[in-house]
Amino acid sequence: MDWGLVASYWPFVLAMGVTGMVSGVAAGLLGIGGGAVIVPALANSLLLMGYDPSVVQHVAVGTSLAIIIPTGIMSARAHNKRGALDISVLKLWVPFIVAGTFIGGLMAGWFSGDLLRVVFAVLAFVIAANIIFEFQTKLMGHLKDAAWVHRLSAFIVGYLSSLMGIGGGSLTVPTLVAFGRTMHNAVGTSAAIGVAIAVSGTAGFLISGWGVDDLPPASIGYINVPALVLVGVLAAVFAPAGAALAHRLDQKTLKYVFAAFLTAVGINMLWTVLAG
């Protein structure tokens, strides 16, 4: 056994373990699927290990979507037990969000890694500002009962989420709040919607990354299996803890936690582009 090679992977294993725990709590707390934690953590870890920068962001995004599947299921179950899951919204959103996510995943290979990072950062800032100033509610609140608006929103959320590698909660939660749902209901429903996004997006990234050169070892398409296992298991285990915490916080506090989290993630992603 090459012990030098084993030793070189320990920092990656440790980083992914911490990422799994933090993303799991964040998924349950904010209904975000954990991708806003996983994508920058995995991308930075792979860059530090010397892998090709042109594919690192794609691998981080694709792997994040795959990890969100078990995390989202555990989070949605925890919220459902507390009555914070809106089935009528799921029926409206899921078919269109799946279509948007799959198309976004197929198109991901067309975009450079830096462009994906900029998209991620800009959307994170816009979403954070929207949570604080609620301009989406002012623009869309009167359309909350229009089914076509829900379906169009679902498609757009799915498409953008697949490019960002998130479970859609960063986009879904403020949209559902704008449509009149409570913050707790929006977070719980978003967790379930995130599973549909993750399944469809993962399929798209598997296909678009198939046969790409210079991928990290043990990658299937743009999905890195070691990161998937390490982060996915711990994230699924810790997601119920985040859901329990969410229901102990009032809606205003939950909004500010969500906005601060997204701002920090956006700054980190933009710094990665500028520093590179």
Which tags fit this structure?
11 helices; two-stranded antiparallel ribbon; 276 residues; mainly alpha
Strand content: under 5%
| H/E topology pattern | HHHHHHHHHEEHH
DSSP, total strands? 2
Q: What is the percent of helical residues?
A: over 70%
The protein's oligomeric status is: single chain
Main β-sheet, spatial strand arrangement: 1-2
How many helices in DSSP terms?
11
Q: What structural category characterises the helix and strand content?
A: mainly alpha
Query: End-to-end distance, in Å?
Result: 35 Å
How large, in whole angstroms, is the Cα Rg? 17 Å
Task: Chart the SSEs and their pairings.
Blueprint lengths: L2 H28 L4 H14 L4 H29 L5 H21 L5 H21 L1 H6 L6 H18 L4 H10 L4 H26 L10 E2 L2 E2 H22 L4 H25 L1
Antiparallel strand pairs: 1-2
Helix pairs in contact: 1-2, 1-10, 2-3, 2-11, 3-5, 3-9, 3-10, 4-7, 4-9, 5-11, 8-9
Tell me what the structure shows.
It is a single chain. The protein is mostly helical and 276 residues long. The chain is 80% helix and 1% strand. The protein is built from 11 helices and 2 strands; from the N terminus they run αααααααααββαα. Strands 1-2 form a two-stranded antiparallel sheet. The longest helix is centred in the N-terminal third of the chain and has 29 residues, at 53-81. The model is unreliable at 1-6 (pLDDT under 50).
